[in-house]
Amino acid sequence: MFELIAPFFHDLYEKTGFNFNVFYDRYEYERFLSGAVISLQLMFGAIILSLVIGVLGAWAQGLGSRVLRGVINAYIQAFRNTPPMIQLLFFYFGLGAFTPQVDMGGYTEPLISNFAWAVIALGIFGGAYNVEILRSGLEAVPRTTLEASESLCLTKWQTYRHVTLPLAFRICLPSLASNLISLAKTSSLAYVIAVPEMTYVLNQVWSDSINVPEMMLILFVFYVSVVTLFGAGMSFVERKLALPGFGR
Asked: So what's the pLDDT on residue 232?
């Protein structure tokens, strides 16, 4: 791929001065690919963690324990009412200062890397919204459906896993998709704790080569492309999961 595009972008730079060096300089090209891969991994990890938190949190809210509901509500308020960048800094520099160090043979590294902290922080941030989104979906499930599951002698967990959660997921899928798309975009903030994702890498490139407009254009196109594809995928899932009487 590099050999195919490098001559074109090198000629473009020579003739017009537009310096897209990530497409004709081998070193910068490899940095660009590495940043893209890490960005996608970060989005995937944060989205999965936020969904797990959302599913478990929404289930715990329906258990009837006032203490548990109070803890979950406190978590939701704390992480919905603080900026995600502050949360990233808090986890990495605050909690990270108390994590043990691992001896790497002459030097030490933190047990939890900056990438892992970014996944944790963003996943917890997105999970706070997912809990409320899924809770609203659970409340929209008809009472008659719950009574039918009770008549089949299903436990609360079985009812949640096999009956109410699938229906709630379908009901709240548009809102859930919007939150996951927003979380994917928020992953770009991980550059503040030096995660070498796309924003961080291209920032280094334009600092070295003084080609800010070109790198900003690439960064813009990258996130537009990724988020558009993700949004199209969520729309496809929404159509496939359509059920008569729910949602549309």
From this structure: 94
